[in-house]
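Reopening: Protein MIZU-KUSSEI 1-like still failing for me.
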Amino acid sequence: MVRIAMECEKRSGGDKTQVMEEPIWTMFCNGKKSGFGVKREPTEEDLRVMRTLHVVSMGAGVIPEEEEEVVHPEGELAYMRAHFERVVGSRDSETYYMMNPDGNSGPELSLFFVRV
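Support: Ran it again with your exact input. Result attached.
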């Protein structure tokens, strides 16, 4: 099981920003600090990937890179698409659990978004 926690700082003054609208995050993977995340607008490459995956409902694989555009040094992009259950813990926390399609075991991936 993989647990990814995205943490951001609370702002003073009783800010009404929803937790998923926060612009800057610190990322932890299975308890170890792994990097940072920044909210941004999607690029043309992001939109191309989403259009490609639009017909995929569930699964994992690799999208080969188009020959004209070499964006990824490996020449391909790995993806994972699944059903997630959303749980709102409070105004300062949301969790997404990737649900196993067979329903026999718990989530294999958990994403936690928390303001601390």
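The CA atoms of residues 85 and 97 lie 5 Å apart. If you still see a failure, please send the error message rather than a screenshot.
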